[in-house]
Every structure is written in structure tokens, then in C-alpha cells.
Write a structure and sequence with these properties.
Length: about 250
């Protein structure tokens, strides 16, 4: 590997949903630090015998950085394994900055984010013509603050497709903000728990009833909330495949 450290997106859970490159990085690594709360440990089966494996769930940022820097200092290849895609709620910036400060080179290998795995589980298209051409990826405020202009109620005004991370334990609040912001109460909602894991579960409803359904099922973590009319049946056919619509690769008929 050209650089000593790879930040690798592990994908949403199914070990076959890591990229070929990500799997190759794991197989080559001497040290693997994985986000134990969400990364499927089955991915560690790709590691070579004798690789040092650490779970970052119990570590602070300083400890993670020290572990990476220490391993690199000994000439070891390091993989930092993050769930889904590392660029979303992955806290990688602070790790990259710490490596930059130490002059340690790294690369990022993207992964299949859970919001995309949720679309597959739901068999839905987020960007349906005449319904929504925009996907908002967001979260409700928790210990991490959300900027005022990005409050859910403000984003709801667009009535686009919305994928809400890290918020299922606060579903009542999510629903209240979305309705206050402009989604009609009959807007379809789906909650996908542990998308692509063997125990994946899907709950469907509307803004009016989803909180009750999900509370009754006891879902309080590792779930994606998908909101929008893309989950309903009505839409316009795409222009891309319309017979009268020509483009670079096909003439209009
Ligand atoms: N970087 C990750 C997100 C990390 S934040 C990604 O790209 O997916 C953790 C949140 O992601 C969870 O609270 C949940 O909202 C979502 N999540 C992660 N894995 C999931 C899965 N398999 N199914 C549904 N939601 C998941």
C-alpha cells in the first residue's frame, strides 16, 4: 500500500458490501482499529493472521491517534475502519488533522453508507421525477449541536426526500419538527433498523403513526429514518428512458 494509513468505509453491515479496495486494505493491514459499536465484526475475518485488532468504542481520540501513530512508527500498515461511509458522522476530520500534524500520510476508501443501504432495503428510488430530486441527509440535534439554519423544521420546508441518521430514539421529536416545518401528516415514513444485517427490520407508516409503531417495536438505535413521498406510489416516468427524449447515447424516436 502506498500510504501507511487507510480510513476505510466498512459499509452498512453485510460484509460483502465493503469495497474490493477496502477488503484488500484489511487483508494487508498489520493493525486494524474498528468502530466496534456499528462495524460488523465479520469484516475482521478478512484480516491476516496475527494482525492487531482494536475496538475504538472504548478509546478516546487521543488514544486512537496514539495507536495509529505508534503502529506507523513501527512500520506497520494501519486500517481505521468506520461504519458506512467515513465522511458521514464519522468524526474522521479530527483524526486526519492529528495525522497531518504528525506528518503521517493516509488515504480514504469510501463505503456504502447506511442511507443507501436503507434505499435498497426499501426498494425505493430517492429521486423520483415530479416527487423529489433532492435528498437531505441530516440528524436531530443530540449531544452534537446542529446549526440553527439546519433545524429539521427548516429543512422540512423543502419536502424533499430526507434520510435522518442518529435520531430514532428521538422519533417523537423528529415527527413534531417535520410536521411543524411543512410535511403533511400523511407523508410516508420508513424506519430501517440494521439495514443489510441478518436481523434487518423495516417499519413503515406515516408521520402521523410511525412513532407509535416504532416505539411498540422497541427500536431505539442503529436505524435510518426515511421520509418523503418517494415512498408512496405516485411519480412521473423518467425522461432518461422516454422514447421521445434523445441524448448522447440514444436518438429520440
Ligand atoms: N458513517 C455511517 C453513519 C455513522 S452514524 C454511514 O455512512 O452510514 C451512525 C448512524 O448511522 C446510526 O445511528 C444509524 O442512524 C445509521 N446506521 C448505521 N448503520 C446502519 C444500518 N445498518 N441500518 C440503519 N441505519 C444505520
Amino acid at each position: 500500500m502506498a500510504v501507511p494509513v487507510h480510513f476505510v468505509g466498512a459499509g452498512p453491515g453485510d460484509p460483502e458490501l465493503i469495497t474490493v479496495k477496502g477488503q484488500r486494505c484489511i487483508a494487508a493491514a498489520d493493525t486494524i482499529i474498528y468502530a466496534g459499536s456499528l462495524v460488523n465484526p465479520a469484516l475482521l475475518d478478512f484480516a491476516k493472521p496475527g494482525a492487531a485488532i482494536m475496538n475504538s468504542a472504548a478509546m478516546t481520540l487521543d488514544e486512537v491517534v496514539a495507536a495509529i501513530a505508534g503502529a506507523v512508527g513501527e512500520g506497520r500498515e494501519v486500517v481505521r475502519l468506520h461504519t458506512g461511509d467515513p465522511s458521514l458522522y464519522g468524526a474522521i476530520k479530527e483524526q486526519m488533522d492529528a495525522l497531518d500534524a504528525r506528518g503521517i500520510a493516509y488515504e480514504i476508501v469510501p463505503g456504502v453508507s447506511s442511507f443507501l443501504a436503507a434505499a435498497a432495503a426499501l426498494r425505493c428510488e430517492y429521486t423520483l421525477p415530479a416527487v423529489s430530486q433532492t435528498v437531505i441527509v441530516t440528524r436531530l440535534e443530540g449531544r452534537t449541536p446542529v446549526p440553527e439554519q439546519e433545524k429539521l423544521a427548516a429543512l422540512a420546508a423543502h419536502r424533499s426526500t430526507m434520510c435522518i441518521f442518529l435520531s430514532v430514539h428521538l422519533l417523537d421529536g423528529v415527527v413534531a419538527e417535520l410536521i411543524a416545518g411543512g410535511y403533511p401528516p400523511d407523508t410516508p415514513v420508513a424506519v430501517v433498523q440494521k439495514a443489510t444485517w441478518p436481523d434487518e427490520k423495516i417499519y413503515r407508516g406515516t408521520l402521523a403513526d410511525i412513532a407509535r409503531t416504532v416505539a411498540a417495536a422497541g427500536v431505539d438505535r442503529t436505524a435510518m429514518i426515511v421520509v418523503g413521498r418517494c415512498l408512496a406510489g405516485d411519480y412521473a416516468l423518467s425522461r432518461l428512458y422516454a422514447p421521445e427524449f434523445g441524448h448522447t447515447f440514444r436518438e429520440a424516436t
